[in-house]
Design goal:
The chain has helices at residues 38-46, 91-95, 103-111, 127-140, 157-174, 185-191, 209-214, 219-224, and strands at residues 2-9, 15-22, 27-31, 53-58, 61-63, 76-79, 145-149, 178-182, 194-199, 202-207, 229-236, 241-244, 247-253, 259-265, 270-274, 280-287, 291-298, 303-309, 319-324, 330-334. With 335 residues, it is an alpha+beta fold. The longest helix has 18 residues, at 157-174.
């Protein structure tokens, strides 16, 4: 278990009043804009930089601003974006480095599908294979916790989807707590048991991916985790129904919002059909392969984003009819 309580780092508060608890086999993803403090948090947990205030509990160890523990004594496993493999050693030699028994190394090599490359050196491996070797080496040394610093950022997009799940599965197999830092919102949402969203060194929200996406506690979180539109409306607090120019919708008020509000809409919350007598006009279109994303200006003046099948083709300037189609409660914010 990892417990972080009121941790600060730096005079300019690169990390500001950070607190969270991580369960024994829990995977937490941390996401946020560049410079928000993600990597600094990993460095503080690993012991590479001192904290200015607060407490970090790592199993039986407690770290404070005046009581530190050397990185090598924290039993931390680290997985980097640049793999950090020894180029002159084979896969088995990299994974078993400083191990007395190769059985643990063999276990993770087999589990991560690296057996055919057991005696191959890193120069002859693909990026995905190198990252599997780095993870196998980390887990073979039985760390108390694992820190992953943008482990997929140097890989081709085609590799990322499968590898993110392989890494998650291996971490679950090892049963150790892990913190995965990424700048990729989709990656953070898909692999984390919980996700933490950072801004200016502060944790804006920490919750399940589903709750952070559908029940964001701020407009910043709503925008950062995906395409977000805010549609003006009026909230009926008795029925928790918000009335808008595009129809009514069930509401989930944020911070006791009431009266005149803005309704959070994701691109899949709306339907769109071509209609000269419609309630809006296409202002831009983006082809995404299996889907098309449209920016539409409503007749009331708001702009919303709508995602449709790639077969639903509309051009800028065309009139369309839009309706809110989601039946689950949508977040509403005070205007």
């Amino acid at each position: 278990m990892i417990e972080v309580q009121n941790v600060h780092y730096g005079q300019k508060k690169v990390v500001d009043n950070l607190s969270f608890t991580l369960g024994d086999a829990e995977l937490l993803t941390l996401v946020g804009p560049t410079g928000c403090g993600k990597t600094t948090i990993l460095q503080a947990l690993a012991g590479l930089i001192p904290i200015s205030d607060g407490t970090i509990k790592l199993g039986s160890h407690t770290v404070t601003a005046t009581k530190t523990i050397a990185p090598e004594k924290r039993q931390v496993g680290m997985v980097f974006q640049d793999f950090a493999l020894f180029p002159h050693l084979t896969v088995i030699e990299n994974v078993s480095f400083k191990l007395k028994d190769n059985a643990k190394a063999d276990h993770w090599i087999e589990l991560l599908g690296l057996t055919p490359w057991r005696d191959v050196k890193p120069a002859n491996l693909s990026g995905g294979q190198k990252q599997r070797v780095a993870l196998a080496r980390t887990l073979a040394h039985e760390p108390a916790f694992v820190l992953l610093d943008e482990p997929l950022s140097n890989l081709d997009a085609a590799l990322k989807d499968d590898l993110r799940w392989e890494i998650r599965q291996a971490l679950k197999e090892a049963g150790v707590p892990a913190i995965w830092v990424t700048h990729d919102q989709e990656e953070a949402l898909s692999v984390g048991d919980r996700i933490g969203i950072l801004k200016d060194g502060k944790l804006q929200q920490i919750d399940t991916p589903e709750n952070c996406f559908s029940k964001p506690q701020s407009r910043f979180v709503a925008r950062f985790l995906g395409d977000a539109s805010f549609l003006p409306g009026t909230l009926n607090t008795d029925s928790n129904i918000v009335a808008t120019a595009l129809g009514n919708a069930p509401a989930s008020p944020v911070n006791n919002a009431q009266g005149e509000v803005d309704l959070l809409l994701r691109p899949d919350d709306l339907s769109l059909t071509l209609d000269e007598a419609g309630n809006g006009e296409i202002i831009w279109s983006r082809y995404e392969g299996s889907a098309r994303l449209y920016g539409v200006k409503t007749d009331a003046g708001a702009t919303v984003k709508i995602r449709c099948s790639h077969e639903n083709i509309a051009e800028p300037g065309q009139r369309v009819m839009m309706h809110i189609i989601t039946t689950h409660p949508l977040a509403v914010f005070e205007r």
